[in-house]
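Obj: model holo form, ligand = adenosine-5'-diphosphate.
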Amino acid sequence: MIIIQLSVRQEKIVSIVKANQPITSEQIASILNITRAALRADLSVLSMMGILDARPKVGYFYIKNAQSNFLLKSVSEIKVEDIMSLPIVVTDQTTLYDTIVTLFLEDVGTIYVNTNGSLSGVVSRKDLLKNIMSGGDINKIPIGMIMTRKPIVTIKKSENVIVAANRINESEIDSLPVVEEYYEDEHIKHRVIGRISKSNITKLFVELCKN
Ligand code: ADP
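Output (holo structure tokens):
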């Protein structure tokens, strides 16, 4: 959980800046009766949070929409790997029946499919429903036959959550497999290491707003 709690001194600094802006760090230090060195850490935290703005040779300003700036700053520092879930993966030979059982047991909406250890497809709830309704023997149909193949929309763990949310929206899908690239026989392959879904992003949003 991300906790945003200003110290008493940081609160004081914010009110000093609000009342006297623009104000230099020397002036803040003398009002608080502390050294500039002691003040430096607090000033850099407040600037990083988007609460204060430092303009060279002018001084510090208070940023009006500090709360929303802070939300944006927090989100921009969160990576996919910080909020991703475990991926649920089956092989392309898994039957349609077993894939449906996996979907229920693992309580997910999307299942990723591997062929020889690398990502080859995706199946969603509607893909499964559609194929049950088409009437074949669900104990015989391998999932590789009905899965969505390339191009699969993916993301890397080091990418920002905003990039992930945007990619989910633009592709009109529920989740993205988090992948690592590797080479095999001079072909680029993707190993699935995580899953980032609309639920992960909604949870993050609620957590940030709580703070
Ligand atoms: P549902 O079909 O249950 O509404 P989605 O909106 O996630 O779920 O999926 C819509 C379609 O997009 C499905 O056919 C699914 O196979 C495909 N799909 C889902 N995720 C991806 C992805 N990451 N890359 C490519 N296709 C995907």
